[in-house]
Amino acid sequence: MNEGQTGRRSGGRADRVAKRALPPAVNPCPPGQRGGQYRPLSEADMVAIYQTALRLLSDLGVGEVPEILVKPFLAAGATFGDGRVFFPQDMVKRAIGMAAKTFTFHGRDPARSIEVGGDAVHFGTGGAAVLTLDIDSGGYRPSTLRDLYDFTRLQDTLTNVSWFTRCCVATDLPDIYDLDVNTVFALMKGTTKPVATSFTIHEHVAPIMRMVDIGLGGDGTSGLFRATPFLKTHISPMISPMRYGEDAVMVTLACIEHGIPLSCITAAQSGATAPATLAGFLAQSLAETLASLIMVNVIKPGHPMVFSNWPLVVDLRTGSFVGGGGEISVMNAASAQISNWLGLPSGVASSMTDAKVPDAQYGAEKGISSLAAALGGGNLIYESSGMMASLLGASFEAFILDDEMHSLIYRTLRGVEVSEETLGYEAICEAVLGPGHFLGGTHTIAAMQRDYFYPTIADRDAPVTWEEKGRPDAWGRAKLAARRVLETHHPSYLAPEAEARMRGEFPIQLDP
Predict the structure, then answer these.
(1) What DSSP string describes 297-312?
(2) Which site among 252, 334, 366, 494 is 20 to 30 Å from 312 CA-CA?
(3) Do 170 and 148 meet the contact criterion of CB atoms below 8 Å apart?
(4) What is the average pLDDT value for the chain, to the nearest integer?
(5) Any idea what DSSP says for residue 148?
(6) Which of the 8 DSSP states describes residue 112?
(7) CA nearest to 121, candidates 229, 28, 37
């Protein structure tokens, strides 16, 4: 073979194969894709559900109203009687009109900030799992503060977790103040994404926000957080059916005072705390979430709030919570549809599988519920990464598997782009009149990098290759991937001086 032949060969099939082996130049399925293609409710359905919710608020009203809300509600047009507050329909509609329609959920790294609202879909996390699926033993054990930090730094590497809510409870911290403080500390140390937490009681908000200010490089009172609020609170001011929860209301008011964005979550359960019929459930749950919205906007019009109407399901045979199934999938999609119809930033839940390990049940329940929520247009889809066992457990391997699943869902949402280039008339002519195939053509190479997602966990090997590799399964591949991250990714997104001061002034339990 002479030198000229070598040169020609390098530009031939081998070269084209090498080009095809290159990783994609761009992410073909980034977060923030447009949702809303799945519409389980007709326009008439949504009107009927909304009108029923308005009737519930105006005629049935909401019970157990904390005294601190009485004067603001009266001033805004509400009435009281028999221990209940009644919201006239025009008052409800004013609150919807005043409410924030979009807002920036900031990351401490500005490149990781996301816009909440409109038709953009983002998967994130949630939950308060008390168990961790141990990556070594494959069994469940109580979750710890170290687990929370490890989950935080693991998801820090995952593209499709747009924000991180603490996914497990540090059960090794029985003191509720220590728990709340250390949860926020672990979030700040382990990621620069937008994050979310909860506060057990309202008295914890002020000192923890002082700690946050120190973590941002302030003196504890400099108010740096308000410029780019990166921490959101998950709170349930409404208790189903149709009453306020005073402790949660007080936390909500404290968060508003400190400029903390809110996810006001309604989490009724079908046949238990809400009607068993899907339509009745959606009407009551909508009314309850609107009651939270009214409260927030009476206190501070336009305060950033995610309208987090999460329909949850119980197995009516046993009374146990059901994380996966067709009913919970369609109801969360319908909830997103109604919230977006009202112009409110929607929060729903998905991927809450009842499976205990990554198996066929796991894949079916997570895939169906996540796709339904995304196609329904949920702006923020909670619980969607890492959760197992009906929200009782969290799993490192599940975070890896779910991240890849969400790439597939984002690619589905992205749909088909039709243009002169993508229609490919010239490429078709060239292939038909030339080699008779499209392999290695410039049109194919461009599409490969732009339009296709290539999984790293899902198995696309031939059976013989799979046999040669030892018959690996998805759980095993995800376990290896999670271990690699946990062994190599050790971020500390806190400046040493700031972390030292936080440790000196607060009961930080996380081992340095």
Answers:
(1) HHHSTT--EEEEE--B
(2) 252
(3) yes
(4) 94
(5) H
(6) G
(7) 37
